[in-house]
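User: Please predict the structure of the protein below. I'd like the answer in structure-token form so I can feed it into my own downstream comparison script.

Assistant: Understood. Taking the following sequence of 674 residues as input:
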Amino acid sequence: MRWLEWIVAMIWLATGASLATRTYFVFNYAAYANLPPHLEVIGFPLAVVPILLFALFSLRFGGNAEPSSDPIERRLWGWRSTVCLLVACVPLGTGWLTMILRPTPKGIIQVGVWEPILFGVMTGLAHYWSDGSGLESLRDRITKVFGTSWHSFGLLCVFTMGVGTWWFLQSKYLFDSFQLGFNDFGHFLLRVIHTIRGQGFLMEAPFLPTFWDHFNPGVALLVPLWWIWPKPELVFFLQAFALAGSSLLVYGIALAHRLSKPCAALWGVAWLVYPSVGQMNVAYTYGWHPISFSIPCLLAAYWLLMQGRTKTAVVSAILACSFEEGAIAAIGCYAAMRAMRGFFTESIEPLDDQGSSDRELSGITAGQWAVVWLLCSLCFLAIYRWSGLAPFQTGRFAKLGSSAIEICLSPVLRPTVFFGLLFRSRNLFFLLFLISPFAVLIPRVQILWAWVAAAPLFLVLLLWEHMPAQSLAFQYASVILPILFLGAIEGSCRFNAWKSVLSVFAIGWTLSLFVGQFPWSGDTLTDVKSRSYPPVARWTGTSGTRAKGSSDHRVFHQQIRQIRSELHVGSVPFERSRILATGRLAGHFLGALELETVGQYFDRFSEYRQLYPDLSSPLLHYDMILLDPIEGFQQTQDQTKQIREMALSLGFELTTFIDGFDVLKRPYKSAEKP
């Protein structure tokens, strides 16, 4: 019946190709079919074919690490994988059935976001249940070549460098194409620049406390680096290789759990293809967030603990916490889990060939973990209370209560609101995309303990009224990912380690086809791109994309070079100028004396009014106002138009460019001119 298995595999290939023709949005978890079902099978991108064929190859030949000699058992494993592939074909069957029973409407059709999840999970289970018959000798040769030398690590390094380079180039391309907004990377770099110039330690604006939104003193470590490389590409580079380089730490952790080198290397690759990691690099065009630096620090701290280097591990953990207070919460939750786990497991399990007990792995007792949890809790509460971030973060839970105590008691005080927020449909998809790559490990108690550690962190994200907190496209789940991977690696150690990691890799890699940020992934940023540059601007009647190769792109960069040059522009050198700009433009003018975006100007108008009471309008504080008339992501076109009209009424001199952005220069009195 081998022919039947191959027929099912071909149908699976058609399903994957069909799903690849669709558009998936990871911000609001919507999916749209761009073609009718009968055309999806032949309308797929050609680049998808070799990737799907590789999946079939790994399924056919990469199965059981120790195939059973019992032919009945081997046939059973083969049938299980065939059934999984058949279930993965359900989305294709659903589309065809819908087409037969109901004529396809014209235009774009909304389809289910669950379809790629089902396809990925069933593909992973098929890898796990594959008998691997026919190529055991090849697997043995691979293990012999790559398991007894540095080749496994070398191949992982090559893949890591490739993915890291892709992520860096991806960020740079989007930045050059005016697709990265000023939030968040621009705001955090402003703090670095202001620190260098003595305008306040990590100060973003003079009327805001240093840590008004996040506790991140570790950002000060970028100050000497910015002296060396004062360009936004600095953080794009650091973030790309922080995310990609974490794969090497995952490899080291897997080795420390006594997995083979090829198995450990595959765990590193599984990290690289995990969809959330790729999405985090761009963060829905927000560019960079310091919390991405916490990830390698957290993984390094765990690896150092396993090596018995406790003091160095503590330093790495503190460094992780310095980049964002969420790392403190993650360490505290993980420590609480290890303490509970230790107390529940009174006897220490003896070492075996594939793992060891909690105490042997970390060298820390349950009581010591409890102390770590207590210290983290006290530190987090102190930072929340006195750093200045409490009003901002508490305001994001306004429906649950006006204070931290009311929010914590909201299940009792406001149960309708609490459970209404908790059981939103977007929360389910958010959890599925994060957890489904580990579907085969769900029965393992180790990963269940990891989920216990992550549960409080997930609860905060699921209850947050800030929609990006439940979006795969943002960085909010950053510090949860190390916990999930640690639990998965530990759970695989004593239970078919090779097959487990092959399944995790297959699911993550398959999902990355649809919702990742890789060369082989579909475009998940279509919505934010269309919001940034709509086809036709409402009040100008013009259109444009600002992408490379367009006349807009060329003229924009010419203007930017002119303004940033050493020549006096509007009677004020660039380094001494105060600039107000639309969001996509603002990031290109880092280095000005002061820099603000149009959207934030309206949000902070009352503060600016109080800061400059002698001016008839706070706009007169700025030397230049730079407006892209059609950009509408981090401010509306109406706000841009309003700023333009206000500036003209105040006497600003307007300079317009064909295919360029508007430059408005402040009117100077003779005494004010340098």
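That's the full token string. The CA atoms of residues 27 and 471 lie 5 Å apart.
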